[in-house]
Amino acid sequence: MAEWLLEPLGFAFMQRGFLAAVVVGVVCAVVGCYMILRGMAFLGEALGHATLPGLAAGYLLSNGDRSVTFFWALGTAVLTSVVMGALSRNTKLRQDTAIGIVFAGMFALGIALISSIRSYAVDLTHMLFGNVLGVTNSDIWLILAVSLAVLLAVALFYKELLVISFDPVLAVTLRLPVRGLDILLHVMIAVAVVASLQTVGIALVVAMLLTPAATAFLLTKRLKRMMGIAAGIAAFSGVAGLYASYYLSIASGAAIVLVCTLVFIVVYALRRWRPLSKPVESKSPAH
Amino acid sequence: MQTSVKEQAHPHGAQGPAIELRGVDVRYEQHLALDSVSVVIESGLRVAVVGPNGAGKSTFFNLVSGLLAPTRGEVRVHGHAPGQHLCLAYVTQANQLDLNFPVSVWDVAMMGRTGQLGLLRRPGARDRELVRSSLERVGLLPLAERQVGELSGGQRQRLFIARALAQEADLLLLDEPFAGLDLPSQDKILEILDDVRAHGVTVLFATHDLELAAQKFDRILLLNHRCVAYGTPVEVLTQPHLSAAYGGHMQLLNTAEGRLLVGDSGGHHHHDAEGQHG
Q1: Nearest by CB to A280, which of B94, B149, B277?
Q2: What is the DSSP letter of B27?
Q3: For B23-52, what is each residue's pLDDT tens digit?
Q4: pLDDT digits (tens, 9 = 90+) for B202-229
Q5: Which of A169, A174, A226 sits opposite B67 (nearest CB)?
Q6: Whole-model pTM?
Q7: Beta carbons of A176 and B98 less than 8 Å apart
Q8: Which of A35, B22, B232, B237 is least buried, going by the fewest C-beta atoms within 10 A?
C-alpha cells in the first residue's frame, strides 16, 4: 500500500502536479463559497471560457511562455468581468444575459486566434482541459504567489465580504466601499479561474469553483467552517484525482473533477438520509 | 487611538430634526414616485409612515437611508447628507435575504459593527459586549448560535433590530416589519421599540395598519406620492386627509367608542398582509 502511494511521488512532475492541484483547489474552493452564496455560478463558467483569447494572444506573442500567457489570461478575465458588470448596470439587460453575450463573444475570439496557429488541435486541447502534470517550477511559484494573495485578501476583508454577500442594503447603510469590494471579489474569482486553467482547464474550471463549496454548504451552517470543509474536499480531490490519473491513465483534470463530483454525491446521499436541518424556503423578492 | 469612526462620522447632538426633506422628487423612468415632498421629522419620535400600496413608502426609506438619490430637492439626516452617517439602520422587507445563508444569529448582529470597526480590524471586547447586550434586549441571546433560517419571522425582525442596536444606530427605518407576523410577535416588537425610544432612537415604521399607527405612534406621515399630512395621529387622521390619500376607499366614523376606520366594503379595515413595494 505504502509503495503504491509513494511510487508516483518519485517523479518530480507528479510532485509539482500534487502541489498545484492542492493549492489551486483550495483557492477555488474558498472563493467558490462566495460564488455559490451569491448565485454567481454562471459567472464562473463564463470567466473560464472568456480567458481563451487571452491565453491564445499570450501564447502567440510570447512563443508559448507560460508566465506571460498567465498574465494575459488574468488580464482578460478581469477585463471581461468588468465589462460584464458595466453592461448589466448601464442597460436594462439582466446580468445573466450580459454574461452570456460577453463570454460567447470572447470564446469565439479565442477560437479564431487559435485557429490561426498551425498546431491548432493540440494546443486547444491543452487550454480546454488543462495539464496539471505539465506544470513547471516557475508555474508553481506563480500559482503559489497568486493563491496566497487571494487567501490573504479573503482573510483581511472577511467581515466586509460577508456583509456585501449576505445583505447588500446593510453594506450601503454601513458606508462600506461596496463597489470596491465587489471589484475585489471579481478579481479574486478571475485569479482563481486563471490559476486553475493549468490544472483542470477552461472547460472544468467551474467544477473547481462550485462543487467543493456546494458540498461543504450541505455539511455546515457557518461560513468559516464551510470554507474550511470546501478547501479540505478540494485538496483531497486534487490528490485522489492525480492518483486515479496515474494508475488508471485518465486525464488529470477530469480525474480531479470526477473525485469532487463523487464526494458531492456521497455527501448529498448522506444528507438525504440524515438532514442537517430543513432547508428554508427563501421567499423570492416581490418583483 | 480609541476614537471610533462613529464619533467622527456624525458630530450632531441629540437636538435638531432627525430628518429633513425639502422639495424632494423621485422619478423612475416616466413615473413620479415622490412629488415635491417636504417634511421635517424631529428626533426621538416613533413615526408611522402610512399610505396606500405604491404610495412611495419604500422609496421614502430608500431616500433617507441614502440608497437612492433624489431627482430633485434635498434630503438631510441629522443635518447632513444621508451618505455621511453610520448612525442609521434600515431593515428592509423580510423577503429580500437568503435564509439559507450560513451565518448564525450572533454573526448577523455582529455585522452591525462592521462600519464602526473599519477595514482590516477585528471585533474587540466592546463589540462583543454590544452584540451580547443587543441580543439580550430583544430576547434572542439564548438563540445566538442558531442559523438565521432557523428563526421565526418575528424572531428575525427582532434580530434585525438587535443588529441596529449593535450598530448604535440612532435612526431606525423599518419597512413593513409586521408583514406576515402574528399578534404576539407584533406586541413583542412594539415592546422592544418602547425600550428603543426610551434611549432616544428615532424610529420610522412603514405600515398598512392605520389603527396601529393611531394607537402606538407619536407621529404619522401620510404619503400618497405627495406628503398628504404629517403630525400627531389626531391631526393626521382626518376625513379630508384620508380621502386625499386613499380616495373613497377609507372612511372615518365618529362613534361612541371613539373614531373608527372603516373600509369601503363596510367592514373594519384590516391591513392587508400581502407584501408590497411602495
Answers
A1: B149
A2: E
A3: 999 998 888 899 999 999 999 999 999 998
A4: 999 999 888 899 999 999 999 999 999 9
A5: A169
A6: 0.86
A7: no
A8: B232
